[in-house]
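Handout, section B. The chain below has 304 residues.
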Amino acid sequence: GDYCEKSFIRVTWPTYPLEHIVERISQRLDNVKRICISMITHKRATKDTKDICTLFRSSFDVPVSLLISPTILSHDDLVDFKTAGADKIGVAIDLATPELFDKYRGSGVGGPHRWETYWDCLTDSLRLFGEGNAGPHFMVGMGETEKEMCDAMQRARDMGGPTHLFSFFPEASATLANHPQPAMDQYRRIQLARYLIDSQISHSDRFTYSEIGRIIDFGLPLRELDDVIDSGEPFRTSGCEGYDGQVACNRPFANSRPGPDMRNYPFLPNEADISRVRKQLGMSSASAFHKLDTQQPLAYTAAV
């Protein structure tokens, strides 16, 4: 269909004149904590991104993130993005291994994207924008093991980049419409691992994995693990922050339908939410985590 009729991350994106968008944002600045400009892989996208970022930053004092397309960018483009006023960069690596990246983003689908190009762009972005101001997007449930995802997140953290985590969610009429969503317990473990890695509470090398690459120990005392789970923080949307230091990007529904079983909480989970998360993890407490059948094959459930 027409471009304005298409959806992206389960949201429709109607087109409006740029001036109209600036005007409406200006009228609602109290409710806007951050703006994200997402590039597509198109020859016009680089200049358009620079121009839009410059316009936004000259119109109001709201921080701007860019979700960039490394395949069509040079080092000078990244410099221009910073000059235009962007302060954070996202790189949608998405897949945890080079083989999966090539299968879903590269030659496997006739795509132009290359694993090394994306990681090199992340490295360059971190050098330009600083530690913590550029990071990868990773998507759980594309055939990787939990160990492979943890190793990818740790690689990014060792470079200085925080991970923005998603759960694969099939969308009708898309190429992967019939690809299953990862099991909830798998996603919760990876959320917990991401938080421990990014917060430098633990390290993927300290994790213990089963023979099938499933996490069976997070490398810290059980009481500490309980405290981390009870905080609810690992299960919130892992997005860019606003000026106040709080997560400003709270998009939950790229991962799941609205309801109590949302995968990324756009708010701090309450006591009932934490109880639900523990059930999804299969644990009433951290000590119960170690009583799970660690040789059980990873289960996948279709989206409801």
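Note. The chain has ten helices and eleven strands. Compare this with the example in section A.
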